[in-house]
Design brief:
The chain is of the alpha/beta class and 449 residues long. The chain has 15 helices and 12 strands. The strands form 2 sheets. Strands 3-4-5-2-1-6 form a 6-stranded mixed sheet. It has a 6-stranded mixed sheet with strand order 8-9-7-10-11-12, sandwiched between helices. Helix 4 runs antiparallel to helix 5, helix 6 runs antiparallel to helix 7 and helix 7 packs antiparallel against helix 13. The two termini are 22 Å apart.
């Protein structure tokens, strides 16, 4: 017998709080708090008193959703209460005393998934939607939640299932009554599917950045103007700026939004070989760590002076990271920026700025977000590592199938690869995902969702 679960579904603050109750006893439990004669018509809000013993706990709007026409597919009752932490806490206590159990993280969504209300990709889209704090993340989540991504994956799955059925039927056809399949047409179907999958896997690098934000490290020699740049980009005095070399010790992180994209900037300690003290030494270690964790490195140079040996060395280190790097030639108000004599600069974008005058900031912002802006607004994107990995595995299986076909292997050999690819697609959609994996996925959701 399935338990009936309850939790607060709304966030902190506000005037109204929402408590959700789901499971076979949802109505019975609700009646322990209301007048027994109260009739809750499905999908209609009913204004009624909720009782704590003989006294009224709250006057609330109560909505009943009859199974299977609810979010979870079970009987659900939602209570819109006055958002007093006492009322919410007491209602949950009363419901649990009457037999409900507190919902685990993501348990409502997990039940919705198990009852076939949505697949795993849609469920993860829902989780992302709740977490989305900007336009880009919202867009990625919405494409996943509204089923567009699942639809695409479903199409691919159907093509492979049909192909497999045709191959298998011939494998079972011992008397060879069926006309043989043309290997060119099998090849074509597999190649079409591979193209669809690759189109999706190619979006991962951008999809991930749109969902999680772009991590940008500001690195360079002391006094080049990294902290000034951070301040100019965030629009307020976030980091300490002085004319002393080695001002910044600890990393300073601040998130901003540029054209609907989340950008997380990290200002770092200037890197030089002779740190003055232990704190600066540790600061420099942290600068290097920030550089390793970043998606994009802004190499800030004081372009009013010649480039120094330490900057040359740092440039070599930056190149080893093999990351998108932007050369920021700062202090252009002081002197015309001489082009620094760095190796391989041709492959990197250069932006000339003056943090003091605020010049070049728009250009820098544009360059920073260019790869994210370039994505078609209606295109599907994948943003979860799990999705990416399953698709890559399916891709490998299909490439294996093509190889076998080229080597004129028997149908049973390449059919095995197609079966493998299908298994990865089903896993992605949650059709064959083991319970413990599901528990891990849903535990990343919030309570009440
Ligand atoms: N003229 C001019 N001075 C600037 C500009 N940007 C920064 N400065 C000055 O350069 C000095 C160092 O600036 P910071 O932003 O502290 O440099 P930093 O790279 O963070 O230095 P560390 O924290 O020591 O690594 C300060 O005196 C700033 O006012 C600029 O665009 N033009
Ligand atoms: Mg600084």
């Amino acid at each position: 017998m399935q338990s009936t679960i309850c939790a607060k579904a709304s966030g902190q603050g506000g005037a109204v709080a929402l408590v959700r109750l789901s499971g076979p006893d949802a109505l019975v439990l609700t009646h322990t708090l209301t007048a027994k004669t109260l009739i809750l018509e499905p999908r209609r809000q009913t204004f009624c008193s909720l009782y704590d013993g003989k006294s009224v706990l709250d006057k609330a709007l109560v909505t009943y959703f009859r199974a299977p026409h609810s979010f979870t597919g079970e009987d659900v009752v939602e209570f819109a209460l006055h958002a007093s932490p006492y009322i919410v806490g007491r209602l949950l206590e009363l419901l649990c005393r009457a037999g409900a159990v507190p919902a685990k993280r993501g348990e409502f969504s997990q039940r919705a998934f198990l009852n076939g209300k949505m697949d795993l990709v849609e469920a993860q889209g829902l989780c992302d939607l709740i977490a989305s704090g900007n336009k880009a993340a919202h867009r990625v989540a919405m494409a996943s939640l509204d089923g567009k991504l699942s639809e695409k994956l479903g199409e691919v799955k159907t093509k492979l299932t049909d192909l497999l059925a045709q191959i298998e039927v011939r494998l079972d056809d011992a008397d060879e009554e069926m006309p043989p399949l043309c290997s060119d047409s099998i090849r074509q179907t597999i190649e079409d599917v591979l193209t669809s999958i690759k189109t999706l896997t190619d979006t991962f690098s951008v999809g991930r950045l749109m969902k999680d934000g772009l991590k940008v490290a500001l690195v360079g020699a002391p006094n080049s103007g990294k902290s000034s740049l951070l301040n100019a980009l965030v629009g307020f005095d976030r980091a300490i700026v002085t004319d002393q070399s080695g001002t910044t010790r600890d990393t300073v992180e601040e998130a901003i939004e540029i054209n609907g994209h989340k950008i997380v900037l990290t200002d770092t300690a200037g890197i030089r070989s002779h740190a003055l003290d232990l704190a600066e030494q540790e600061g420099i270690r942290r600068s290097r760590r920030a550089m390793e964790k970043a998606d994009v490195i802004l190499f800030v140079l004081d372009a009013s002076r010649e480039i120094i040996t330490e900057e040359q060395a740092l440039w070599t280190d930056i190149q080893k990271q093999q990351k998108r790097t932007i050369l920021v030639l700062n202090k252009c108000d002081k002197a015309p920026a001489p082009v620094p004599a760095l190796e391989n600069t041709a492959t990197y974008t250069r932006v000339v700025v003056s943090c003091k005058k605020g010049e070049g900031m728009d250009e820098l912002k544009k360059v920073l977000t260019a790869p994210l802006q370039a994505v078609a607004t209606d295109g599907l994107l994948i943003s979860h590592l799990r999705h990416y990995e399953e698709l890559l595995r399916a891709q490998t299986e299909l490439e294996g199938a093509l190889l076998q076909i080229d080597q004129k292997a028997g149908g049973e050999i390449y059919a095995e690869h197609i079966r493998g690819a299908l298994a990865h697609l089903k896993d992605l959609l949650g059709e064959v995902t083991p319970d413990d994996v599901l528990d891990v996925i849903f535990s990343k959701f919030c309570v009440g969702k």
